Amino acid sequence: MGDSVSVSGACLTVILIAKPKFQVEATKQTVESTNISGWHSSTKVNLERALKVGDRFGGHMVQGHIDGTGKITKVRYMAGSNEYSVEVPNYIRELVVSKGSITIDGVSLTIVGKTKLGFKLMIIPFTLENTTLGVLKPGEKVNIETDIVFRWLAERYPQDHSENNGDAWDANSTNITEIYRED
Question: Taking the model in full, what pTM does it have?
């Protein structure tokens, strides 16, 4: 009771245990920013308990703080892996980097590359067989959590995309170079 559990990527609080089942509670904001409202009694979800301090860490840092939802637009079935195309809102796409980490329905994955409307993923058979990702079809909504480190950097060092102000990254790089030269 009271523990956090990731349910398809959303960090929820356990409020009732009636083995083998448990009940969780979600805020209105969580329901509005995830695909929870589309779940029903037979919906399969990915479950993961919170990491304990000192446990082995194998993946990227995942908090269960969903940034929003995306839509599977294409699944390409291939030998050895499947390629998924995911469409996301622009505010999420701006936090996506090629070879960076992303979480889809609570599963930590590596981004293959950005697309015009989102990004692509390659998912190996083990992940397809041991998570709900193997049954995803085009048109389905998925919960998305971007990488916390990249999210923090983007917030800390926002880019100015206006046409007249140039590239903010170049301006910061110049400042860093000048600081470096002073040393």
Answer: 0.82
